[in-house]
């Protein structure tokens, strides 16, 4: 690329970022980001390229943290018949969002806010995708404040895209973000509100997909089933609980019908039907 277009520093930097992202090379990601930051013409397109590069690097750093955490957690369980809470808390503390990550994602969010009104849709969607990836990787209690910041920003940016309500890809990301946000918000009432909105968005995303390509989306049915199961834990009314079980089973069956290779969905259906039967028996006993 440098030989063919020696003056195209932005293009070269974008190639470095994609290379680093594809094969997992931190130096390539950092070099590409530094070049983009150094460009003088800070138009909306360039700002989104910088944001994308910053998020790609943040995602790389987070994946490295997760990769290191998994075997350490497994060893902790293997070495102790009873989990050492102090050792586990110490391990969790190492999963905090690093200052480098926080600086990167906040830089990206700030740049998107400056550029989103004038930038090309494809660039906006690319950045939203990276934001979603980073947000969904933050699922521990020590990360929830950062997760909420990134999730709120992702949803904010989706809502600023013209025609977003008719874009099944953006509505899918919105639904996925809400599904994750339910895990990191505080308070039962807030969880109920978030999960209800997530279900609404999941159903809408699937309908938009049907309208666009003529068929249901297996991921949306699987996501919807999971959301319905979560909603069960937030509901007290017995009749509503049983109705939600029915919907969850039907949704998982639809997801498996659309993606028969996912045999784990059959196990989920079996487990939920057993839970539903147990709930029904408990109701009978109470009577």
TrEMBL record:
Protein name: Uncharacterized protein
Organism superkingdom: Eukaryota
InterPro entries linked to this entry: TPR-like_helical_dom_sf
């Amino acid at each position: 690329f440098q030989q063919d277009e020696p003056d195209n520093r932005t293009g070269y930097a974008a190639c470095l970022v994609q290379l680093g992202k594809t094969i997992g090379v931190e130096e390539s990601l950092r070099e590409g980001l530094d070049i983009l930051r150094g460009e003088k013409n800070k138009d909306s397109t360039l700002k989104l390229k910088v944001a994308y590069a910053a998020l790609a690097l943040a995602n790389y750093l987070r994946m490295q943290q997760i990769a290191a955490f998994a075997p350490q957690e497994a060893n902790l369980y293997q070495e102790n018949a009873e989990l050492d809470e102090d050792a586990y808390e110490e391990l969790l503390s190492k999963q905090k969002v690093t200052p480098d990550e926080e600086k990167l994602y906040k830089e990206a969010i700030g740049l998107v806010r400056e550029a989103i009104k004038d930038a090309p849709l494809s660039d906006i969607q690319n950045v939203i995708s990276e934001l979603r990836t980073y947000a969904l990787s933050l699922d521990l209690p020590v990360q929830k404040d950062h997760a909420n910041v990134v999730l709120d920003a992702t949803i904010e940016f989706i809502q600023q895209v013209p025609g977003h309500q008719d874009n099944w890809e953006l509505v899918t990301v919105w639904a996925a973000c809400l599904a994750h946000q339910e895990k990191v918000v505080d308070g039962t009432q807030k969880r109920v509100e978030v999960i209800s909105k997530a279900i609404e968005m999941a159903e809408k995303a699937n309908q938009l997909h049907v309208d666009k390509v003529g068929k249901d989306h297996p991921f949306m049915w699987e996501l919807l089933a999971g959301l319905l199961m979560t909603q069960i834990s937030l509901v007290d009314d017995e009749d509503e609980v049983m109705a939600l079980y029915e919907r969850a089973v039907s949704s998982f069956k639809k997801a498996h019908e659309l993606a028969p290779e996912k045999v784990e969905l059959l196990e989920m259906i079996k487990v939920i039907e057993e839970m539903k039967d147990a709930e029904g028996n408990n109701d009978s006993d109470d009577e």
